[in-house]
Amino acid sequence: MKTLFLFTLIIQFTSFIFAKSNSLSGNRILVVLDNIEDKSNYSIFFKSLEDRGFDLSYSSASDDKLELIKFEESLYDHLVLLAPETNYYENDVGPKQIIEFIDKGGNVLLAANENTGSTTQDLLYEFGSVVDEAKFNVIDNFVHNSTTSSVLALDKLEIPISSDELEAPILYSGTAIKFKGKNPYSKPLLVAGPAAYSWDNSAVNKDPLVTGSNIVLVNTLQAVNNARIIITGSTKMFTDEFIESPVKINDKTYEKSGNLDFITNISKWTFQEKKVLKVISSKHHKVGETERPEYYTIKNNMHYEIELSEYNDGIWQPFNATDIQLELIMLDPYIRTTLKQQPITNPTSSTFSIDLIIPDHCGVFTFKVDYRRYGLSWILEKDVIAIHPLHYNEFPRFLGEGLPYYFGAFSMLGGFIIISILALYHEDDTKKNTDTVTSSKKEKEVAATEKKKN
Fold it and tell me: Could you tell me which residues belong to the region Disordered (predicted)?
């Protein structure tokens, strides 16, 4: 009996060690439900998270033990909010604390529905979005499952967060989300069709809040600290009923919906199990050298390179791109150039590099790579270094562009020498001039004497 107990303990300890999630942010997930009994409605979704190594904790929004942050530290790494109808969370867990959780690097998967309460509405407002009125569902009379127009069947993503293709349509039943303004960090992932609108069971007697492809069904948001948020207007798309439900569109029938694949994909992205970039190293130096200099001199030839790696499903692999740019900035960019990817020699990373000439301007410059692309975590790598002017002994003695000035200076010098020589060595006939002056004086004296005699 003791041997069996010890063997069981070893098995449990081993499974605890090796059951590690692929998330780079951690494996602690808090699931908040309207009622704890609703847990059984999402059993397939929750089991898929546990199979990926996540440690799930469940709580109802009204549980007095509900805590998200304690002693300025997050108690969880990820947050799944499936409690849209609750108007009040216990222990001051609300929009302000959830935003603080995101600021600390936490990831959030948020679901609303046609009966969204004030807490979820306030949180959506923080993300720049609003939901339609209560009891209003997204309806599409052309793209829906079988004969139920309020259950949409969508087989196309607006902007995929990965190259994954949908093998079966996604079933969606819920409210419409409208985003106010243009948030550069927010992108719609799944939108309604052109004939969709949001309304309740009554007759349409006014313009709906939003129609067509302006209805956002699933939206992605990535904060400046790389925390990720998924927002959707349907809790039903996560339920076992929608995951197991067959789909019929026109004459085409699917045994199961594509909901499980879809929510698995978006949850992997949200919990940072995929599309995560990391800077392995970055360096710059003069061409022909290997060490970073203390400073550069204007017009030096410089080599810059950065090594990046991409994380997907537990594997670090080389990152391929053609749009990574390097900027040399002093207040404004003096140089902005695209880095070239080098042949891959490392199975886990790739190198991007460029050779360029330092700007002909001295000062303190920032060498910056700021790469922000949808679906990928953002990278920011920068280094500050001074650029000096040329030393007195580094200037060229003669410049071809200065030939006109050289000619003007030397011509002036030559003219001055010639004039000086003429002035120094030119001699006048002074004797002839003296005789001429004397004779003219005598003629004047004779003329004066004759005038007196007369």
Answer: 432-454
Cβ-based neighbour number of residue 345 at 10 Å: 9
Mean pLDDT of the chain: 86
What is d(CA 150, CA 201) in angstroms, rounded to the nearest whole number? Answer: 10
Closest CA to 126 of 110, 142, 146: 110
Distance CA 105, CA 292 (A): 33
228-232 and 107-111: which strand pairing?
parallel
Tell me which architecture the domain covering 21-272 has in CATH.
3-Layer(aba) Sandwich (3.40)
Q: Do 21-272 and 276-388 fold alike per CATH?
A: no
3-state secondary structure of 185: coil
The residues pairing with 328 across neighbouring beta strands, listed in sequence order, are 335, 367
Query: Long-range contacts of range 125-128, CB-CB < 8 Å, 24 or more positions apart?
Result: 125/95, 126/95, 126/99, 127/183, 127/186, 127/221, 127/229, 127/231, 128/179, 128/180, 128/181, 128/183, 128/186
Angle among Cα 184, 125, 371 to the nearest 5 degrees reads 20
Tell me the backbone φ, ψ of residue 168, rounded to 5 degrees: -145, 155
CB-CB contact of 247 with 171 (8 Å): yes
383 — phi, psi (to 5°)?
-145, 140
Whether pLDDT at 148 is above 80: no
Strands (E), 233-362: 247-249, 252-254, 274-286, 295-297, 301-312, 315-318, 325-330, 332-338, 340-341, 350-357
Q: Phi and psi for 272 in degrees, rounded to 5? A: 60, 45
Instruction: Delimit the domains of the chain by residue range.
Output: 21-272, 276-388
Domain 276-388 of CATH type 2.60.40.10: no
pLDDT of residue 10: 45
Say what percent of the chain tops pLDDT 90: 56
pLDDT for res 4: 42
- Which residue is listed with tokens 């509900």? 66
Cβ burial 366-404 (10 Å sphere, 16+ → b, else e)? ebbbebeeebbbebeeeeebebeeeeeeeeeeeeeeeee
Give which of 166, 251, 152 is closest to 194, Cα–Cα.
152
pLDDT over 80 at 33, yes or no: yes
Cα–Cα distance for residue pair 142/144, rounded to 1 Å? 6
Q: Is 256 helix (H, G, I), strand (E, B) or coil?
A: coil
Q: Model-level pTM?
A: 0.81
Residues 6+ apart with CB under 8 A from 55: 27, 28, 29
- State the Rg of the chain over Cα: 40
Q: Where are the beta strands (DSSP E) in 223-266?
A: 228-232, 247-249, 252-254
